[in-house]
Amino acid sequence: MELLFSLVTGVLSASGIYLLLRGRTFPVIVGLTLLSYAVNLFLFSMGGLHTNAAAVIGASEAPADPLPQALVLTAIVIGFAMTAFIVILAIRARAELGNDHVDGKQGDEGEQSK
Amino acid sequence: MSQHLLILPILLPMLTALALLLSGQTSTSFQRLASIAATGALVILGALLLYRAGSGDISAYALGNWQAPYGIVLVLDRLSALMVALTAVLAFGCVLFASAGDDTRGSNFHAIFQLQLMGLNGAFLTGDMFNLFVFFEILLLASYALLMHGGGKARIGAGLHYVVLNLVGSALFLVALGVLYGATGTLNMADMGRRIAMLSADKSALASAGALLLIVVFSLKAAILPLYFWLPSTYASAPAPVAALFAIMTKVGLYAILRVNTLVFAESPALVFIEAWLWWGGLATILFGGIGVLAARDMRTLVAYLVLVSVGTLMSASGMGHVASVSALIFYLVHTTLIAGALFLLAELVGMQRGKAGTRLVRARKLRQPTLLGGMFMIAAVAVAGIPPLAGALGKLLLMQAADETQRLMLWPLLLLAGLAALVALSRAGSVLFWASYKGEPSGPVANRRQLSGATWLLVSAPLLVLLASPVSHYTDATAEQLFNPQQFTETLLPPLVPLAKEPLAKTSRTEATRTKAPLIDTSSLTNYSKAVSSDIATAKQPALAHTAASVTGDKR
Fold it and tell me: Where are the transmembrane segments (chain B) (predicted)?
């Protein structure tokens, strides 16, 4: 499970960072979302990975740490609000600037055919 | 009442913001009145907090009466009291200025402004790492909205960069917190500092990685060299009262760095790297900021680069890492925050009277009130460039004295050259703004009384800080002393370490501690340990768990 978990986190953050470096707002937002997924998974694992261990004292012999779960919940909600905000912002930017390039200017190279 | 004083700087802006939001489209004058009154009350609260912290006591406020380290605490020491008071003073000037008309260019200006104050005050007062993250997000979300206030191409473009960068910063913040929690098993700052000192070698390396990552995040907020590129365009495109308020935003990053360096990472092996990084990064920021000041072609960009120079100065001082430098840093911080705010407001006042040219440094029409604005500009310029007799000179002098022999070789030339660059750029800007004008009658609007009083309120700080230099520097000396004695902080906040903590297992995280690792330890300590853990669970953990979840999920809304 540890291997799978770390692979998933790694692939998510790698794809997130790749997309973040793109020149248009939509891939950037998707990249941010992927990155926040990776971060949430990472946060989740910071109390250690367990199977069959509910985060309730007495429910199992070795209860999992409940704190990371609370933190992830917070991070998810904050991330959700931020994503909503930046989606609206990107739409505003597309309307005001006339294109969806992150610099507000159409790049000279590539991607123009889209 | 008095024990609830600590939460008031957070509650008051929050309730004001909620009331303003819920009351819907009430008259503008009512919104202004409420916002000004609430910010004025914050100034009084700030003074009360300063008075309280001035005695040298550290007060803690356990939210929901859940005791540290399980519950979230607010902590008031000299530094946080000073920062809250400074925020209130700055915000009062900004909100006065905004009430003259800037607040009607978009919706809900005052409500968002109050939310921003709530985030700032919370970040200064909290004693919990994750709570710090939550308050950072609150202040960032409010700052995004304030930055876009009024719309327009430049703002949207700069805003997009600012938002994306800060979202990446928040992701890094969470990763750093995760690593630190994994290594130490706590999120309370004082508790974390105590545990970092006792970590085993492998955990300690993990904690160092987390520490360095955290400093990267704070450096992004504070805008130090490789991470400052967002600042000039963002600050230059923000509405004037917002840009003025943002003068404190970079200081939040600095505050967080000071706090974690002295409290959390004081015993960490990573501190050496952190200080080296702050020192060199700060110096490089001064250099590049100075070049930016000379190259700026717009008054607002110029002021943004001046903010950058001050950030560099403060950062390099925090990198020196001794009592005298931190004391000087805090003195300079108060001065530079207020004067940067005043300059942003002044730039707007001047720009309004110059018609289309605005704040660009080109020939334009005559000013309506050249003497008044010119006089104010001169005071601000003298203060920010660091020429005697105003507070800027004093702050820089204190900083230069605080540097030791080898540091002087680097700091003095850079600091003085940056001062010279500021002087050159500001004289050039001043002569273009006030003298190089077309012939003809001035036609711009006269500066509103509220705008003038807002700018004056901030500007007065420069001579006032010189007059009150002695009490202020006593206070900053005491603040620095207090920062470098985290024991007092820890003792106020936390119950004394139980003997259990000296055993090997107690160093590991809470989760690992609850599992039994029989082969690693001998049986006697295991029995002691499990006894202690179960009593621990019975007394504190169970309610604390529910509370942590509740308060954490509650906070974010």
Answer: 33-51, 72-98, 129-147, 159-184, 204-231, 238-257, 277-295, 302-323, 329-350, 371-391, 411-436
